[in-house]
From TrEMBL:
Occurrences of domain Tyrosine-protein kinase ephrin type A/B receptor-like (ranges): 599-630
Signal peptide boundaries: 1-26
Alphabetical keyword list: Signal
Highest taxon in the source lineage: Eukaryota
InterPro entries associated with the record: Tyr-kin_ephrin_A/B_rcpt-like
Protein name in the entry: Tyrosine-protein kinase ephrin type A/B receptor-like domain-containing protein
Pfam (any one): Ephrin_rec_like
Length: 658
């Protein structure tokens, strides 16, 4: 792994940072077709392009171009625009072209691949990736220190890439039809002009339009799409690097299943607990993800599972407000999913269990209104899984999300690595130095695709004496053989193990299961942070003085897969547990905390007591002549007999004084 000291040199002579923002008339422009030779460098950064609004027109432009190392000197800061494709064989080096086309806003989905191609082309001291049988034996002998003559002659074959990434336009300023036309036309032209057999897939919002192009061009498309329906049409040239998003809820399903042998306080077992699944009916991602949770819960034996499916784009009361933004509609969904928590214990037959459902919520923005409603009515779920728990929404709402569970493609705690970076987090740190912003997991995925394409060819020619991918891609039989090699490829990547199922989508590992859990601050405090730390300590002291538990800091921790997990899942959530003896349910505190899953218990005030675990909203006053000796959180009250010095206490049991 090279040091960060080489970041600037790599940028200087490997990647061309490009782009063009054209101030054209807002009037509709005539349709135009674009070729590689027509496209100009972008003058804005990828991230800047990603922020364009509906009034910002953008002409298609090349945002990145990475050349083979032996052609870098010819670049000199300008596009090469060769009359012939660069794909070909140069002595023992094969140059393969690779293309990507994205809409303006997908900067994370395009900002990883250039880094991957940089490192591939710079491998082996700038010769590229070694392929073929000679490279395998040479590597072995180099490690053993033998056969120096072979190494000096270096008869190994190498692989380098010519990578071109194009921004097709700003969909916010175009009709959907016109953007799709541009995207498809440019992608077809790039494949043809550059003789490119590999396509780095675009972001999921524009991904469907690339599938037909891949099949017609017989170009290998590596899609960045999670929902399984995308891969069901058996397109022979479409592969998927994303993990099946239907797997996202499974860690939570499994954590609930682990409770199935535990006796609950009301005599029921976990398989009888109510589970409510709320999701949209017109989005493949939201629908298939939560539908998967339903299917797996039923298969696990849960008996009380209810789906609450809604049309987010409909208008239930014809008031002109779509259901996804209609407060009355969403409040109704919330009430259907969870009922108020009782404020007093009435024995085991009070239906207490029904007040602690496990919730699964597949929504985009609807959760804001539903969570607010649950706080208002005193809903106390035992767990909550939400699609939004791993999004920026969760980071922006830290008070809401403690103990929320979620799922995703990747997590910073993953330790998967490759030959260039020790982890995805290290890659993101590296790219932040290049691009000036902190990237998301989409950058990790995007980076992994070119590296996976290289691994595809390394595996395909592992025992070939004279590997010739150029000739094989040029012939129908050779290309089909390489396609079949991709179907059976098994590779370790920075994104994790990759292999493909019968639909040619990645099934190499499980999805990342996450939960917002408390963290402890173990790092030493820097000198400039000491004042802030003292304020935090005083804040926690005040919490204790108020009869509250110290406030915890929460972070989105990795809880699955098991071998990568950094923490264990917490189920049942604090909100669904009875307050311990010496405390009571503080409804006001729950609403103030803003979280439906955090603990809402306060210590009993001075001269009150609570002898048992409970869900009461107040403690019992000490009987006349007794007190708690000035202490909070007491299970008993004390009294001193006048004619004796021994201490007696009052305890509540079965609603009788003893």
């Amino acid at each position: 792994m090279p040091s960060y000291g080489i970041v600037i040199p790599l940028m200087m002579f490997v990647v061309v940072f490009l782009s063009v923002l054209s101030a054209v008339s807002s009037e509709e422009q005539p349709q135009r077709d674009y070729t590689y030779e027509d496209l100009r460098p972008c003058t804005m950064s990828s991230q800047e392009i990603g922020t364009l609004g509906p009034n910002d027109d953008l002409e298609p432009c090349i945002i990145y171009e990475v050349l083979p190392t032996f052609l870098e000197d010819q670049l000199q800061g300008q596009l090469l625009h060769p009359k012939e494709p660069l794909s070909g064989k140069y002595n023992l080096t094969s140059v393969i072209s690779m293309v990507q086309v994205t809409p303006s806003y997908c900067f994370n989905h395009r900002d990883g691949a250039p880094t991957g191609v940089q490192f591939l082309n710079r491998d082996n001291n700038g010769r590229g990736v070694a392929i073929g049988f000679a490279s395998v034996t040479a590597d072995i002998e180099e490690n053993d220190g033998d056969n120096q003559e072979l190494l000096q002659q270096d008869q190994r074959h190498y692989l380098q890439f010519h990578f071109v990434s194009v921004v097709a336009g700003n969909p916010n300023a175009l009709s959907q039809e016109e953007y799709d036309r541009r995207h498809v036309q440019i992608l077809k032209s790039m494949i043809s002009d550059l003789d490119a057999p590999y396509i780095v897939g675009t972001c999921s919002f524009a991904s469907t339009i690339e599938k037909e192009v891949a099949e017609d061009s017989q170009a290998f498309l590596m899609a960045q799409v999670g929902p399984p329906g995308f891969y069901m049409d058996n397109n022979p040239y479409v592969f998927g690097i994303h993990i099946d998003s239907d797997l996202y809820p499974l860690p939570t399903v499994q954590s609930l299943t682990l409770l199935s042998n535990q006796e609950r306080r009301d005599g029921l077992r976990a398989l009888d607990i109510p589970i409510k699944i709320i999701y949209r009916d017109k989005s493949e991602f939201f629908y298939s993800t939560c539908r998967s949770a339903f299917v797996h819960l039923k298969a696990a034996g849960f008996k009380n599972v209810e789906e609450i499916i809604f049309d987010h784009s409909g208008d239930h009361d014809n008031d002109g407000v779509a259901n996804e933004f209609d407060e009355d509609f969403l409040v109704g969904l919330a009430d259907q999913a969870c009922v108020p928590h009782p404020t007093q214990d009435h024995g085991d037959d009070d239906g207490l269990d029904s007040h602690h459902p496990a919730l699964f919520v597949c929504t985009l923005t609807e959760q804001d209104i539903m969570i607010r409603r649950w706080l208002e009515i005193g809903c106390r779920p035992m767990s909550m899984w939400a699609t939004a728990a791993t999004w920026g929404w969760a980071d922006e709402n830290p008070d809401l999300v403690p103990y929320f569970q979620g799922g995703g493609q990747w997590h910073p705690a993953f330790t998967y690595n490759d030959m260039y970076f020790q982890s995805g987090s290290e890659l993101l740190d590296y790219n932040q130095r290049l691009y000036g912003y902190a990237g998301s997991y989409d950058q990790v995925v995007n980076y992994a695709i070119p590296v996976l394409f290289a691994q595809h060819l390394v595996a395909a020619y592992r025992v070939a004496d004279d590997p010739d991918p150029i000739s094989d891609f040029a012939s129908s039989s050779g290309r089909e053989a390489l396609r079949r090699d991709m179907m059976v490829l098994k590779a370790d990547t920075i994104f994790g193990p990759v292999s493909f199922d019968e639909n040619q989508r990645n099934n190499g590992r499980d999805a990342a299961g996450t939960q917002w859990l408390p963290i402890t601050r173990t790092e030493s405090v820097e000198e400039e942070e000491e004042e802030e730390e003292e304020e935090e300590v005083e804040k926690q002291i005040q919490f204790v003085r108020m009869g509250k538990k110290p406030e915890l800091q929460f972070a989105n921790r990795l809880v699955a897969p098991f071998l990568q997990a950094e923490a264990a899942t917490v189920v049942v959530a604090d909100s669904a547990k009875r307050c311990s003896a010496g405390s009571f349910v503080n409804e006001t505190m729950w609403v103030e905390n803003g979280s439906i899953l955090k603990n809402g218990c306060n210590l009993c005030p001075v001269d009150t007591f609570q002898p048992e675990a409970n869900v009461n909203n107040q403690c019992n006053p000490c009987p006349s002549g007794s007190n708690t000796k000035g202490d909070k959180g007491q299970e008993i009250c004390y009294a001193v007999e006048e004619n004796c010095c021994h201490l007696e206490f009052w305890r509540l049991a079965l609603l009788r004084w003893v």
